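Render this sequence as a predicted structure.
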Amino acid sequence: MADTDPTCELHIRMTGQAHDQMLRLHGDQPSEDDLASWMQDGAVVRLLVSETANRPPHTILVNFGSVVLAWLGPFKSDRGVGF
């Protein structure tokens, strides 16, 4: 998987934060229904992400119980990950 481009970008805003965070996702793209379900259930979800093109993807855990806004977009190669 390290040699593949990200599938999409996931933009999330956590409770109490003023700005969105962008995650470059690898593997199967979640649907909007997946995001809504994770947020409603307060699920902790394991995601495969990458920070830059020269670093291999790695797993992070996201607590969707703390997410107040989420949206999916196409991957754009000129942006890095925003933590």
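Summary. The domain at 8-73 is CATH 2.30.30 (SH3 type barrels.). The helical segments are 32-41.
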